[in-house]
Design brief:
elongated; TIM Barrel; alpha/beta; four-stranded antiparallel β-sheet; Aldehyde Oxidoreductase, domain 3
């Protein structure tokens, strides 16, 4: 099970978002809702989805009012159907209403990524290929979005520029060649750090193999070229298919025998899940 990324970074993100939304105060709630009104609210799924981000939603409400009680009703990564109660919330109604939108934003985004990812993973079930994400994430949300990808059943590519060498076309242009780039990276990287290089064609693949790359990204190649790359490589390096990955292509790409398929759409194009919050009862 993926571990939720609690961190000071999450609190800063929530605080920034609350400042953005509340500003000088929630004028609607302040005008309409008595400050001593208490209530219970339920957060429900309005579609089939994979649960992701409930701890973040709970943290939002805790930041708004520490007296609020937030109770998840399911496990992260579990599937829910329309009408399923994802969480129950009890406490001051003004705080519930003030935190509602931001908490739902977290849930809709993260459930959406986890749900879309699981759909994509199922398309390549039975193959040896592993679906991975990319760095095409919402700024500030990367740890959360990559967590949602894991809940969906895919794996994470590198977390950032700091934890993996990935030599792309502009690096190669600056270094002079694939060989020079791989050699320079090898001279600087420690022994546990793998060297990945992006290549646009089979000639680039041959050069990357000769240079000793550990992982080779096959960029925007069609299925025939991917299958040929697998034959040429013959297990000497891991192969990652990348570029223009859509649902209708995934099974065909996986069938070529590549080790990994990277799909930026897991994070940059996943549709938000349909979720709502409703007050169930109030009291004073």
């Amino acid at each position: 099970m993926a571990v939720f990324p609690y961190s000071p970074h999450l609190d800063r993100l929530i605080e920034l978002a609350l400042d953005e939304d509340i500003g000088g105060g929630d004028v609607t709630t302040q005008a309409l809702i008595p400050p001593d009104l208490m209530g219970e609210a339920h957060i429900r799924a309005k579609q089939d989805l994979v649960m992701a981000g409930l701890p973040a939603a709970g943290r939002v409400f805790q930041k708004v009012d520490a007296s609020l009680i937030f109770e998840p009703q399911g496990e992260e990564g579990a599937e829910a159907t329309p009408g399923t109660v994802l969480a129950r919330l009890r406490g001051p109604v003004p705080a519930i209403l003030t935190g509602e939108r931001l908490a739902l934003n977290f849930l809709q985004r993260l459930c959406g990524i986890a749900t879309f990812t699981r759909q994509m993973v199922r398309l390549i079930a039975g193959s040896q290929a592993v679906l991975v994400d990319t760095r095409k994430t919402t700024p500030g949300w990367r740890a959360l979005e990559k967590y949602a990808v894991r809940l969906g059943g895919a794996r994470n590519h590198r977390a950032g520029l700091f934890d993996g060498v990935l030599i792309k076309n502009n690096h190669i242009a600056a270094a002079g060649s694939i060989t020079q780039a791989v050699n320079a990276a090898r001279a600087q990287a420690h022994q546990l750090l793998k060297i990945e290089v992006e290549v646009p064609d089979l000639a680039g693949l041959e050069e990357a193999l000769a240079a000793g790359a550990d992982v080779i990204m096959l960029d925007n190649m069609d299925e025939a070229a991917l299958a040929e790359a697998v034959k040429i490589t013959a297990g000497r390096a891991w192969l990652e298919a990348s570029g223009s990955m859509r649902a209708e292509r995934l099974a065909k790409v996986a069938a070529t025998g590549v080790n990994f398929i990277s799909m930026g759409a897991l994070t940059h194009s996943a549709p938000a899940a349909d979720i709502h919050l409703r007050l169930i009862e109030t009291w004073r």
